[in-house]
Amino acid sequence: MKSSVKGRLAALCGAGSLSLLLAGMPLASAADYEGEKIAEFVREMTQDYGFASEQLEELLAQAERKQGILDAISRPAERVKPWKEYRPIFLTDARVAQGVDFWRENEAALARAESEFGVPAEIIVSIIGVETFYGRNTGGHRVIDALATLGFDYPPRQPFFRQQLKEFLLLTREEQVDPLTLTGSYAGAMGLPQFMPGSFRAYAVDFDDDGHIDIWKNPVDAIGSAASYFKQHGWRAGEPVVARATVKGERYADGLTQGLEPVLNAAELRELGWHSEDAIADDTAVTAFRLEGAEGDEYWIGLPNFYVITRYNRSVMYAMAVHQLAEMLVEAKGAQ
């Protein structure tokens, strides 16, 4: 490990060889994050987690304010695409073909994850495929830049991103990695599964038992971590994700779920005119939604595992894309 890296890691330890800290590390002549702007944050990290204040200040002085990140997160929301336009973005021949390749290359790890966590291999592959195209698009922003920019210069969500910056500094200390080298999305999501730092610390696992958790370059750890996330959010092994439905009567629209949280059970939904050929226990908590498909409206009943996928990304269409890509991966892999 280079001396400058050792110095940065020492900045996160709070005691011991701090006198050797950051020797020779170049600092910007006019740092974006220094002085009063970060004083409260540094004080919290020092008092709550034992960080060394002077050295942490020097580390944060190397974080850069990125106007492009502020522009990206502040950009007005695009028109919400209907399902018939959203689906083709993710369900492509290339994503299926390369997903099958990823599955075959990591078959042992995926099988072990399914055995230990109960999450099907195709769901794990699909999540990684939708999030980062199997690791090809993990983001090129330094995580420390993204989280400092949003934590100190984006008031609408400052508490959230400042907390994520804390989590990031803690995870780099725990994993003994250089905080200036890790990259991710403009919002600070990291690695193949695009975990935020808080999710990393809560759910990521060292699935290959090498003593480190690496979701950036190690697909085995990424696979185990995604499966861990799903398991801890309530994935039910062996159960389906959705059921296709038909609707009739004048009250079916009352069954459409507003938001993502299930508020009805299957029996109550049936009373409103929703029917499926799939057997669903009366007391199953469900969501119900209508998608504008290429051939007209589609009606779907979301089961508990569908709700789990929406905990990963709070979008009905995202969850449907993950589910349908998973189905396509199974079919394509079986056909080879």
Automatic annotation (TrEMBL):
Among CDD domains, the record links this protein to:
Slt35-like
Q: Which residues form the active site?
A: 131
Please verify whether the record's keywords include Hydrolase: no
Q: Which Gene3D superfamilies match?
A: 1.10.530.10, Bacterial muramidase
**A Pfam family this chain is assigned to:** SLT_2
List, in alphabetical order, the Gene Ontology terms for molecular function in this entry. Answer: peptidoglycan lytic transglycosylase activity
Look up the signal peptide feature and give its range: 1-30
Q: Which SUPFAM superfamilies match?
A: Lysozyme-like (SSF53955)
Query: Would you tell me the protein name for this molecule?
Result: Membrane-bound lytic murein transglycosylase B
Recite the lineage of the species: Bacteria, Pseudomonadati, Pseudomonadota, Gammaproteobacteria, Pseudomonadales
